[in-house]
Amino acid sequence: MSNHFNIDIVNPEQSFLSKDNVFEVVIPAVEGEIGILKDHIPIISFLKPGIIRVFSESEEQSFYVEDGIVEFKDNTLSVLTSSIFDLKDADKNFVSESISSAEAELSKDNIDDQKRFLLNHKVEVLKSISIN
Amino acid sequence: MPSLDDLRKRITSVKSTQKITKAMKMVAAAKLRKAQENAEKGRPYSEKMNNVILNLSKSITDKENAPKLLVGTGEEKVHLCIVLTADRGLCGGFNTNIIKKAKSYFEKIISENKTLKIITVGSKGYDQLKRQYKSYIVENISFKESKNINYFDADKVGKIIIEKFEKNEFDVCAIFYNKFKNVITQIPQEQQIVPLNEDKDDKDDKDDSGNDNDYEFEPDEDEILSNLLPKNISTQIFKAMLENSASEQGSRMTAMDNATRNAGELVDRLTIEYNRSRQAAITKELIEIISGAESL
Question: In this structure, which CATH number among 2.40.37.20, 3.40.50.720, 2.60.15.10, 3.40.50.1820 belongs to the domain A5-86?
Answer without folding.
Answer: 2.60.15.10
